[in-house]
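task queued by scheduler; priority normal; single chain, no ligands, no partner chains; default sampling; output format set to structure tokens
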Amino acid sequence: MLLYDNVGAETVVGTKECQSYTFSYNDKTVHLIDTPGFDDTKKSDTDVLKDIAGWLLIAYRSNIRLSGMVYLHSISETRMKGSHMTNLRMFQKLAGLENMGHVILTTTMWDKTPIEDGKRREIELLKTDDFWGSMIKANSTFARFHNDKRSAMKIVTTLVDKHDKLILSLQREMAEGNQLDQTSAGKALNVEMHAQKEQYEKRLKEQESEMKEALRENDMRYAQELADAQDKISSDMVRLEKNQQELKISNEKLLEEKEEQIRKTREEMEQMKAEAERQGKLHKDEIGKIKLANQEAEQALADSREKLEADSKAFRENCVTSAADLVAFMDQHYSNLTAEQEERVREMQANLRAQQLHQSPPPPYAPFQAPNQPSPQQSPQQAYPPQPIPQPIYHHPAYQPMPQPMPQPIPQQGGGSDSLMAGAAAGVAAGTIAVSSLPLLCTIM
């Protein structure tokens, strides 16, 4: 399959020589040959034709036949330039009108063109005989490439499914022994170069007249500009003459040049491959060093993490042991204090009982009596024991509030005032004991 590129015409970027791209599609091997366009800024039209003719001649002698041709044209172009017309005429001469049924005329750059403008330009291409109209009449088809795989494979499928192969007009003419300048494509290119040469000669004559006029008016600056332009035109004419001579090349010479080009290309590819392998080895070594450094860093990190976990575990164990020792010590200390306080309470109770035995009973208590109520002498005297003092509650997981002694009942001594005083004294003593223990408990907490 031949991909004829007209997109890169008059641009620096584009296909510079025939390049082959191979891929598999539906159990078939597809070879896509990308060819340069004419009027390239880096190569002359003669070099472009020689490049295409050389590849086609090698393919023909190697019994390689084409399935079809794809002609690419940018729909973003606002008009058909002279370079576009040159490309189109050379393509028609190269392929031959008899092979137009194997040609797909394809427009590109739809993503960079307003759709209405693109449709209008497409219709103009298809309807104008000087553009694509004559090829459409000769059974060529057209398609749009939307810069995606789907539209590309649709074009490829159309050509791959064709079972008959074609021999281009240029291949057939060279196989018959014609030199490149004697083929239809060579003759068409000669006509283009001859017309260009005539334009150069016409411009030279015009500039000679302008030169005489400038010298007559003593306009040296304009005369120098004309002289520079004449020099450029003269060099272009020399180049055209050289290209016309290079077009007169035999098939054998063309094959030799193409094979030499292929040999140089292979050498360059081998050098690029060797350089790529060398760079790959360097990169592999660098990657190995980086991996080793990463492994060492990971191992150091794992060791640090393990040491940190061990230290944390030891610290937790030490904290637990210390806390347990502290709790045991405080429990022992609290037990000792509780025993001492209980002993003090028992001693104070014993002292109070002893005092009560040696004291006289308190005087009778006569409260206010309502009418019809019995007198105090008619009812026995009641003793009012003191109420226990509320104790503060201390919340601590290891300790409980210290138990307080219960107030003991005061034996009745005939209802005298001594018993009441003794009871009050006992209550005060118990309260004194409970309150006096607070500073000690707070200190322990």
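post-processing summary
- Residues 51 and 261 are 9 Å apart (CA to CA).
- Confidence is low (pLDDT under 50) at residues 7-14, 375-384, 391-400, 410-445.
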